[in-house]
Each structure stands twice: as C-alpha cells, then as structure tokens.
Model the fold of this input.
Amino acid sequence: MTNDKIKGISLIIITAFLLSLMALFVKLAGHIPTAEKLVYRNTISIIVSFFIILKTKGSFFGTKESRNGLIGRTVLGTIGLLAKIYAVSHMLLANATMLTELSPFFVIIFSYIFLKEKLKPMQIFAITIAFIGMIFVVHPSGSKFEIIAALCALLSAIMAGGAYTTMRYLGPIEKPVTVVFFYTFISSLLCLPFMIYSYVPLNGKQFLFLMLASAACAIAEFTVVNAYKFAPSKDISLYTYSGVIFSAIFEFLIWFKLPTVNDIIGYVIIIFAAIMLFLYGTKFKNTNKKALTR
Done:
C-alpha cells in the first residue's frame, strides 16, 4: 500500500469521525427546530469559505456555466441535510449514519438516470442487497416516530446521492471552496425565515454544541477534499462506513444504548453490498487497464 493511499484512508476515517461528532453534537443540542440547527451548523463553513475566496480572489457564486449545477446541489443538499438533522435527533446515531451511507447506491441510480451511465448487473445486484439491509435497519414494525426518523435518514441518502451526482458535473468546472460557500450560504438563507418563525432561544450549552457541530463539519469538508487528492474514490470511499462504529461508540458512552441484533444484521448486509461494489469497481478498472495495454 502506497503512502498516498494510507494518507487518503486516514483522512477518510478522520472525516467519518468528524461527521459522527457533528451528528452527536446536533443530537446533544436537544429539541431545537431543524432549520435553526441547520443555520448554526453552517456558520463556520460559511465564514471559512468566505475568507478563503476573499484571499484567493475566487468566485462566491460561480460562473454562469456552473450556476444550474450549484443550484441543484444546494436544493438537494439542503433537503438532505434537514432530513439528516431530523434523523440524528430522533433515532440511534449508528442507524441514522448507516442509512445516510446508502448514498453511494443512489449515486449509481442517479448517474444512470441523469448522466446516462450504463448500469452493470453487479451494480443492480449490490443495490438490491443494500436495500434488503435497509429494511432490517428501518424496522417497519417500529413506532411511528422511529419510522419517520428512519425515512428521513433514507431521504437524506437519496438527496445526498443526487447532490454527489451534481458534484461530478461541477468538479471539472468549479472550485470546491465556491461550491461549499454557495451551498452553505444559500441553504442558510433558505432556512432563515423558518428559523425566525419558530426560533428557540439557545442556552450556553446548546450554543456550544451547535458551534462544535459546525466546527466538526467545516474541518470535515477540508479533510475529505484532501483525502481524494491522495487517493481515488474507489480506493478509499469504503472507509466512510467507519462512521457507523464511531456513532455506535458515542451512543453507548453517552446514552448507554446499543444497536439491536436486527440493526447489526442490516449493517453487515449494507457493508457487504458496499464491499461488492468496491471489489467490482477495482476489478472493472484493472480489466480496462489490461485491455488498453494490449
């Protein structure tokens, strides 16, 4: 294993840890309207990206060519983040994390629908397996509130899949810091009226937790960008599932709760499907390389 790949894997695991921390702090903030949590969560990312763009004399709102992509990424990302915040606030962190990690499977589906990328039989099989695992985690027989929270986590994965698809379009034509600023700034503006309408004053502890969530998210945005500079997605994306382990540990240490047997079965099935995609992607790329060298 090369040094660059080790660095990439390390940074992806750090990213998963930071995102698990963000979810933990959001949950610890307690019963605050979801829109309000989103605005506070975006604060540090907006400030950091603003000063980076100012210093580098970059673009705050992108080029005309990228505008539709930026708007699409922002709308999808905002809906997904609202759904994720609701989910982590109302269900087991590990379950919410695992369901939101279904997004790579939705990326494949959306890439087929919108980017006209060919869907391979192995990909269809892996997606089917992942959805079977999802059923174990969602618990159709659970309470109404558990099901709503689980569906929000699933909605977050779907929206993230759509957002990542737009990122593949934006990648060659827009700088990452512009995408981060546009998304966090505009999503906060969209949620600001709802925040004002249902505003709940924060005590010192709640404000601290939301600022910690914002800081964890801001750092994660930079660690993930650097991770993919050291190694391609196919080599390191699988390690994002380490976030489920971190979330389960946090949940146990603070609330003394552990995933059920059904939850763990669902985790294993979903991660197995992800490993299938990982191995298939590696084999497919190696086959193409051999064909090109002949």
About this structure: The chain is about 80% helix and 0% strand. Residues 227 and 280 are 22 Å apart (CA to CA). The radius of gyration is 19 Å. Residues 261-293 form the longest helix (33 residues).
